[in-house]
Amino acid sequence: MTPEDVEAEIEAALEDCEATVSRARGKHDDDHLEATVVSPAFEELSLVDQHQLVYDALGEAMTTDIHALELTTRTPE
């Protein structure tokens, strides 16, 4: 999956979400990624639960296409 594919998957699964995904610093392949995801769905959720929403959005890709995902989650505020 390309970073753009990952962005699209996350944004399709989480309402009013904005995802920015790129290759992880120092990596030159598409299976080591870093993402910043902003969504009102994260409000009142723990950091672990926020990350789980993103992992769920990516589904099987988290075990087949993505080796590592450095994740930052935020609410719009």
TrEMBL record:
InterPro entries: BolA, BolA-like_sf, BolA/IbaG_stress_morph_reg
Name of one Pfam family that matches: BolA
Protein family membership: Belongs to the BolA/IbaG family.
Database matches in Gene3D superfamilies: BolA-like (3.30.300.90)
The protein, known as: BolA family protein
Organism: Natronomonas pharaonis (strain ATCC 35678 / DSM 2160 / CIP 103997 / JCM 8858 / NBRC 14720 / NCIMB 2260 / Gabara)
